[in-house]
Specification:
Elements: H1 10-31, H2 33-40, H3 44-64, H4 67-70, H5 75-95, H6 101-113, H7 117-129, E1 138-139, H8 142-165, H9 172-196, H10 198-203, E2 207-208, H11 218-238, H12 244-265, H13 269-272, H14 281-297
Length: 301
């Protein structure tokens, strides 16, 4: 039975909204224990929004990183699947509704937090770049790397910052520091993942995000570690300007990736091409506990 035009069944929409949020929470729980742990440290007003962002970008990433190919789609069909996903993302952002649960949840976040196509556009441009058009090795030079990382990671950090800052007053100078920190943190996350995923990116995906050759040297790895370390330090400087209920989660994620970077730095490059470096769960828990303690003891600025 249809609801009257002047009295829509809001209970049905609320039930759909809750179901969409369950779906995005399941995505982050399935794909990332690290980010799942970090989001649990967020204040309640941020937590679901960040999960919604993560789920949207994760599904797009999976389209181009093997799931569609394993399902039997060739490059053209993968591209079509991605373009359909992009179109539905942007349509749902305009209307506030999608029959796709993940995109419905993301659209609600985007509309509430002011996330626009200025951020989703570069993200999807990077996803398009990941669809192979031939069987050759795709090597990214410095400019291509910077463009890719901006779209695939820096704008995701800026989306999360939109969540954290809604309803919060900051000076123009503070906003600039926060945006720089969010971008640098996203870039650091992406770059360390490139290092830990050397085997998969090279052997399965035939991509070289960190240079023009198929094999990194130890010296090149060390240079990337130095770059990542500086990116993390830049991001760390912005954390005290975040709302208190976002700081512990960001500190925890930053500390985790700093620990991961140190482990990568101690691992010979040839070994990185054989296995994915990880941080043990007890270490992750200790880093999260320390982030909570530091945040609890610090004074607001």
């Amino acid at each position: 039975m249809n609801a009257p035009a002047d009295g829509p069944d809001r209970a049905a929409l609320q039930r759909f909204n809750r179901t969409a949020e369950i779906a995005t929470t399941d995505v982050i729980r399935t794909y990332s224990t690290s980010f799942g742990l970090a989001t649990r440290l967020l204040g309640a007003r941020h937590r679901q929004h960040v999960r919604n962002i993560y789920a949207m970008v994760r599904i797009a990433d999976e389209i181009v990183d093997g799931v569609a190919a394993e399902a039997g789609l060739d490059a053209g069909a993968q591209s079509a699947a991605l373009e359909s996903y992009i179109a539905e993302t942007h349509r749902s952002m305009r209307t506030g509704y999608s029959s796709d649960l993940i995109l419905h949840a993301f659209a609600r976040t985007a509309r509430e937090c002011g996330i626009g196509e200025d951020l989703t556009g570069p993200f999807f441009a990077s996803m398009r770049a990941d669809i192979a058009t031939d069987s050759g090795f795709a090597a990214y030079d410095a400019d291509a790397h910077a463009t890719y990382v901006h779209g695939s990671a820096e704008v995701v950090g800026l989306m999360c910052l939109q969540v954290f800052l809604r309803g919060v007053e900051r000076t123009p100078e503070q906003l600039e520091t926060l945006r720089h920190g969010a971008s640098r943190l996203g870039a650091a996350f992406q770059n360390v993942n490139f290092l830990r995923d050397l085997a998969d990116d090279t052997d399965r995906l035939h991509r070289g995000y960190l240079g023009g050759t198929e094999r990194l040297t130890d010296a090149e790895r060390d240079a990337w570690v130095e770059t990542i370390t500086q990116q993390l330090e830049d991001a760390r400087a912005a954390i005290p300007l975040l709302p208190r209920d976002a700081r512990a989660a960001v500190r925890s994620a930053l500390a985790l990736f700093a620990a991961l970077t140190r482990r990568v730095a101690r691992t010979p490059v040839e070994e990185l091409y054989r296995r994915r470096v990880r941080v043990p769960d007890p270490v992750k828990a200790a880093l999260a506990s320390r982030a909570l303690l530091v945040t609890a003891l610090e004074r607001d600025r």
